[in-house]
Backbone:
């Protein structure tokens, strides 16, 4: 069976199972198919519901992430889905399935990471489950956020003439993972061990920071017309927006942000950094679209808030597609390819 | 590390992490420690939040449950937690981590089971995650239910003088599992293969039916003062009520319901059926307490509704304890022992 992360085969088994009428009766505004579902809530506020799972040997290994990192990132990945709707993260449920050989100290570190990330983003953990596992750690998190009724930023709002933006550079997490797989675990708190290591790339992979503030600005100002978090890579997220909005996205190669550390590390390892920028996942910045009339105001506001904003292309009419224009004026197709940590499958 | 299911070590890593003030600000009425958390909701209604995980080799094996069964039971187990609060199940998120060797047909059967149980109980699946797994299937479900504000039936309301009840016989699921482990998989739809098999026990194990109607009656009539679903066995659930309510529970051996099929199967296999009745899990009937003045009314109402009701003991003042009085008048301690499917650890 092909890797499920990559092709999103879940649609095959879920689509058409429940009627629109049934969803409406249950108070569901948006079901499967965006970063979160939208359902219920208090007056003036809707609830955003999302669930993300991390599996040992699929999303992390002992030599790429500590127990603390796994806990932290499991919460962060879910918060990022809430951020991608313009919402505020609120409540979490956490399920951990723990291999028999684990001792209590490893469990404590995992929970330290879970609660540290929750604390940092004002999330309260209200429940969950803890079970044994025969061999591999699995951490599932359900996150509930809130958003002003009718205001959530969906994937389907991109329109021709709008520009495409990123709220930070991408590819860092993939570069960090490359280093960890090549050199083994790094203890970031030990200066000796990180000599010459690309510490920002490693940090981006192990302790990602979801873009809640950027998402809130895009919602509150009414700027974001479509939005995704870059969990599966820029290419994959751009394709999701193109398909949901039924438009063509044109990325401008010379405008894609590449961090200096990533460029250097890629060069030293004879890798084209654009591969990571376009196809590396788990950077948790936001990719979205906005009207051109707001471009100047957005740039000024994001600069004042200290949040990066990169204009990387524009939306055209046409059947769903994503392409890249090179500096030389050529047009390259962008593959609908997701992120696969260890290229298994 | 001891089996986590058994000792609920999660408390060690979760208690005291978040202040009561913080929970209150987040709109959390009840946090970790009951069948569900209680938080948020619409006016007049609170939301019940629960999450339960099933892991291959821990909770099921290929020879004890089909893919369809696993999907069905993963939803049913979560619905049972909502029932144990007197609530109505509403929305689900589902995460499945699927071994590489699975084909699409197995996936389809798993999702058939998930959606069949959801459909049967009026639950809408609004999202989730699908990932690969290196070896073992893991299914996590988050279920959101609703309950009238302030009315949820907690574990902590048992008081001296009240009686203890069960809404159905227990031990069936454990008996069914015993058969499956001894004889291998049974195809219930094939009459030849089920000759002499204890089909109700097998069915109880593979396709359990959560007690939503019983829970609703106990809440709507104001009868239930404490309530648990029998997911970990009568002994374990009784201990949870005793500790949360700070009372002593006295179970009457001669009043414990034993189904005829269970008694026969246990006898044929030289097993004391009481071991399954007290320590077998996953029967998903409800164990609770009520005031004696309501005993007659409850009996009549449950009979009219076609739902079993067994009075099995009474609550006394005293430090948290669970004991059993035998027909001969002796008192036996009941161990605080949970259910462990395959006795691994």
Residues:
């Amino acid at each position: 069976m092909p890797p499920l992360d990559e092709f999103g085969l879940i649609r095959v088994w879920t689509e058409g199972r429940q009627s629109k009428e049934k969803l409406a009766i249950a108070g569901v505004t948006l079901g499967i198919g965006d970063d979160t579902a939208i359902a219920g809530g208090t007056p003036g506020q809707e609830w955003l519901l999302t669930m993300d799972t991390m599996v040992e040997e699929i999303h992390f290994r002992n030599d790429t992430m500590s127990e603390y990192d796994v806990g932290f990132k499991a919460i962060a990945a879910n918060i990022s889905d809430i951020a991608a709707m313009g919402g505020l993260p609120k409540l979490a449920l956490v399920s951990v399935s723990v291999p028999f050989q684990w001792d209590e100290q490893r469990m404590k570190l995992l929970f330290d990471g879970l609660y540290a990330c929750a604390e940092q983003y004002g999330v309260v953990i209200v429940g969950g489950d803890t079970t044994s596992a025969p061999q591999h750690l699995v951490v599932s998190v359900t996150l509930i956020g809130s958003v002003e009724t009718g205001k959530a930023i969906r994937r389907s709002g991109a329109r021709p003439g709008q520009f495409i933006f990123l709220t930070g550079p991408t590819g860092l997490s993939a570069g960090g993972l490359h280093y960890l797989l090549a050199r083994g675990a790094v203890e970031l708190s030990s200066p000796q061990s990180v000599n010459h290591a690309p510490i920002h790339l490693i940090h981006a992979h192990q302790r990602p920071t979801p873009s809640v503030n950027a998402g809130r600005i895009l919602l509150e100002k009414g700027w974001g017309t479509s939005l995704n978090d870059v969990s599966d890579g820029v290419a994959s997220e751009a394709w999701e927006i193109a398909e949901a909005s039924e438009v063509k996205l044109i990325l401008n190669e010379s405008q894609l942000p590449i961090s200096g550390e990533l460029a250097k590390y890629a060069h030293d390892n004879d890798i084209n950094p654009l591969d990571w920028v376009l196809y590396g996942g788990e950077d948790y910045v936001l990719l979205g679209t906005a009207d051109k009339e707001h471009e100047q105001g957005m740039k000024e506001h994001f600069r004042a808030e200290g949040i990066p904003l990169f204009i990387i292309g524009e939306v055209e009419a046409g059947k769903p597609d994503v392409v890249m224009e090179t500096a030389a004026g050529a047009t390259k197709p962008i593959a609908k390819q997701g992120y696969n940590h260890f290229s298994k499958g």
